[in-house]
Write a structure and sequence with these properties.
Belongs to the glycosyl hydrolase 1 family. With 462 residues, the protein is α/β, with parallel strands linked by helices. It contains 16 helices and 15 strands. The chain starts with 9 loop residues before the first strand and ends with a strand. The structure holds 4-nitrophenyl beta-D-glucopyranoside.
Length: 462
């Protein structure tokens, strides 16, 4: 699939969904207000050395107090959908036990504000802010956490389900399990391969239990990436050797199929079971779990930033986030990259969407995150972020090419509406199409926001 080159106009199908995404801990602030309990990200960020420069989400974008203004910005951009997450520790401060109605009040008001502005709310129930009390009892490595998530999902649904139709259970369980419990670069910062595989399974179980408690349109959002060799990243038709093929398949199993296959087919990839068996065993996978995990869902949410580039590299130790990746090298490419250091390869989005539609035709697709951090500069009252415009332009053209090639892509949500707390990078990296001045909390539309408003208006790229 060759994305149409910059310059030609493209029009998306009628009814294509346009929106933007955020997450609770990254924007809300108000970390101690209205009965909110501590989460693993509060603990992690307040631990010296974990997050760049000791940044925390204590204040963030102060969205908790400024949500009306922020919904006004969204309305001005013409967003059809706003994807946000609810903070579990606001709603169930201890992770289990009593529901905190004041925590739900905030989302109740936010949903009403959105609906009043003609914007459809997409709620994600878990975007990484696990109640600390549950982590103290083992976190996602403890099976009980999945059941507590089911209870929490039910509580949110009971309050918002009359107005919210589209529900996402989890955001990127791979990141939660393997950056949180294996490499330890995300909260809770643990380093155990065995716990990471347990966490992965219990997150999937949590997805299934929550899906059973919800009604409406159900989604699961995954960080998916085409896994390719360096040569294939530049030319999808490039030849691949048998040893590189094995490397690609193993990483594809760990990153992509470990989550898609249980959720959509009720099976684990054999490679994942084999690797997990060598790292702590498989006792945590109980009879009947895969049937719970394999609930019917309507949408697969895809967060795409870049392909995963690997090749056979005999003797290489396993990558910290990929147990079982011994003998595989993670390669970088000599192509332009974002401030995050992530290579800019829009064609990876086309190939990913086309592959998913071919392999999993039963589920609709939506890009729930795509975007980029760049070193923005403010010039007077403008942020001329031509690099971000080019990134978004390229990826939207790639998404359009995938639709032309038959992918069932329903919509696109940019990451992110606002500059925000970029996890281990703190506030240094800015992903927003709206700039946030953290000193004054003033919002300023970047050129990319003005450009995106035009895209939404004409349902395509001029
Ligand atoms: C996603 N990786 O995170 C998250 O959903 C967002 O909250 C985040 O701000 C955004 O992408 C940008 O980082 C990821 O290392 C973090 O593969 C790390 C990875 C992938 C996604």
């Amino acid at each position: 699939v060759e994305p149409s080159t910059q310059g030609h106009s493209v029009v998306f199908p009628d009814g294509f969904i346009w929106g933007a995404a955020t997450a609770s801990y990254q924007i809300e602030g108000a970390a101690r207000e209205d009965g909110r309990g501590p989460s693993i990200w509060d603990t992690f960020a307040r631990t010296p050395g974990r997050v760049a420069d000791g940044h925390t989400g204590d204040v963030a974008c102060d969205h908790y107090h400024r949500y009306r203004e922020d919904v006004g910005l969204m309305a001005g951009l013409g967003l059809g959908v706003y994807r946000f997450s609810t903070a579990w520790p606001r709603i169930v401060p201890d992770g289990s036990g009593p529901v905190n109605p004041r925590g739900l009040d905030f989302y109740d008001k936010l949903v009403d504000e959105l609906l009043g502005a003609g914007i459809t709310p997409y709620v994600t129930l878990y975007h990484w802010d696990l109640p600390q009390n549950l982590e103290d009892r083992g976190g996602w490595a403890n099976r009980d956490t999945a059941y507590r998530f089911g209870d929490y999902a039910q509580a949110v649904h009971a309050r918002l389900g009359d107005r919210v139709r589209t529900w996402t259970t989890l955001n990127e369980p791979w990141v939660s399990a393997f950056l949180g419990y294996c490499s330890g670069v995300h909260a809770p910062g643990r380093q155990s391969e065995a716990d990471a595989f347990k966490a992965s399974h219990h997150l999937l179980l949590a997805h299934g239990l929550a899906a059973q408690a919800l009604t409406g349109e159900l989604a699961l959002t995954l960080n998916l990436a085409p896994v390719v060799t360096p040569a294939q990243a530049l030319d999808p038709a490039a030849e691949i050797s048998d040893v590189d093929r094995e490397a690609v398949d193993r990483i594809d199993a760990l990153l992509n199929r470990q989550f898609i296959d249980p959720a959509l087919r009720g099976t684990y990839p054999p490679e994942v079971l084999e690797i997990a068996a060598r790292h702590g065993g498989l006792d945590h996978i109980k009879d009947g779990d895969l049937a719970i995990i394999n609930q019917p869902i309507d949408l697969l949410g895809i967060n795409y930033y870049n392909p995963c580039i690997v090749e056979a590299a005999p003797g290489t130790p396993a990558n910290e986030a990929y147990p079982g990746s011994e003998g595989i090298g993670f390669a970088s490419l000599d192509v332009p990259s974002t401030a995050m250091g992530w290579p800019i390869i829009p064609s990876g989005l086309s190939s990913l969407l086309v592959r998913l539609s071919q392999d999993y035709p039963e589920v609709g697709l939506i890009v729930t995150e795509n975007g980029a951090a760049f070193d923005d500069v403010v010039v007077g009252d403008r942020v001329p972020d031509a690099d971000r415009v080019a990134y978004l332009d390229g990826h939207l053209r790639a998404a359009h090419a995938a639709i032309e090639a038959g992918a069932d892509l329903r919509g696109y949500l940019v990451w992110s509406l606002l500059d925000n707390f970029e996890w281990a990078e703190g506030y240094h990296l800015r992903f927003g199409i709206v700039r946030v001045d953290y000193g004054t909390q003033r919002r300023l539309l970047k050129d990319s926001a003005l450009w995106y408003r035009g895209v939404i208006q004409r349902n395509g790229i001029a």
